Amino acid sequence: MAELMARSPLGHRAADLAAVVATTDGRVSLSEILFLGQVDVRVSRDEVIRRQLPLPLDPNTVLRAGERAALWFGPDEWLVVGAAGSAGAIVAELGSALIGAHRSVLDVSGNRAWLELRGPGTRELLSRGCSLDLHAGHWLAGMCAQTVLARSHVLLEQLDDATTWIGVRPSFADYLVDWLLDACRFRVAT
Q1: Helix (H), strand (E), coil (C) string for 27-88
Q2: What is the full per-residue pLDDT of the chain (190 aa) written as tens digits?
Q3: Is 44 inside a domain boundary?
Q4: Which of 7, 51, 65, 111 is at a distance of 20 to 30 A from 90, taking alpha carbons?
Q5: DSSP 3-state of 155
Q6: Is the dihedral of CA 144, 147, 149, 152 positive or negative?
Q7: Of 190, 185, 183, the residue nearest 166 (C-alpha)
Q8: Number of domains forming the structure of the chain
Q9: 102 and 41 together in one domain
Q10: Cα–Cα distances in Å, from 186 out to 64, 117, 142, 180?
Q11: Does the CA dihedral 139-142-146-152 come out positive or negative?
């Protein structure tokens, strides 16, 4: 009997990702976040309020609790992200909390590869390929957005002043890493 093993869409790029810190003189580090549990939730805002679900109600915001984060996608859509292997528990928990409501709760864990950009040059690097205003006065910790980075549809989450998570479709992950590596060749300001 063959044993199934999870395979990262960027596992073969580990050395490239690790080299970013040297390329940018420590201004940026780039790493893959492996196998996050991801659950797409569709339900009305009124149901979220009535059932007191831990989902953010303000546009483009994130509600974090421990290893779990809920990202606002739209007036009736959220992405709940958790530790590796947590999607089943998240689906069960939200499904139970939403019994009787018109809703959709789906495990979409294979839908995105995740990267973490960290360091004081992160915003500058991202601004080279993203049209969002990523200035620290506008793009704050606890914000998220679905946007385009280097012609790839991505999900950005700002964790703190110098840490951004990027969710990208696995089929675009190699391309985005190539773009980030190329963008790092142009010196990130000190």
Answers
A1: CCEEEEECCCEEEEEEECHHHHHHCCCCCCCCCCEEEEECCEEEEEEECCEEEEEECCCCHH
A2: 667 677 899 999 999 999 999 999 999 999 999 999 999 999 999 999 999 999 999 999 999 999 999 999 999 999 999 999 999 999 999 999 999 999 999 999 999 999 999 999 999 999 999 999 999 999 999 999 999 999 999 999 999 999 999 999 999 999 999 999 999 987 555 4
A3: yes
A4: 7
A5: strand
A6: positive
A7: 183
A8: 2
A9: yes
A10: 34, 16, 29, 10
A11: positive
Residue 136 covered by a domain? yes
The CATH number of the domain holding residue 162 is 3.30.1360.120
Strand partners, 164: 117, 158
CA distance 30 to 76: 32
**Residues 137 and 175 both lie in one domain:** yes
- The CATH number of the domain where 88 resides is what? 3.30.70.1520
Q: What's the DSSP call for residue 121?
A: T
Give the domain extent around 54: 37-110
d(CA 152, CA 156): 12
pTM as predicted:
0.93
User: Is the residue at 60 inside a domain?
Assistant: yes
In this structure, the answer to whether residues 46 and 104 fall within a common structural domain is yes
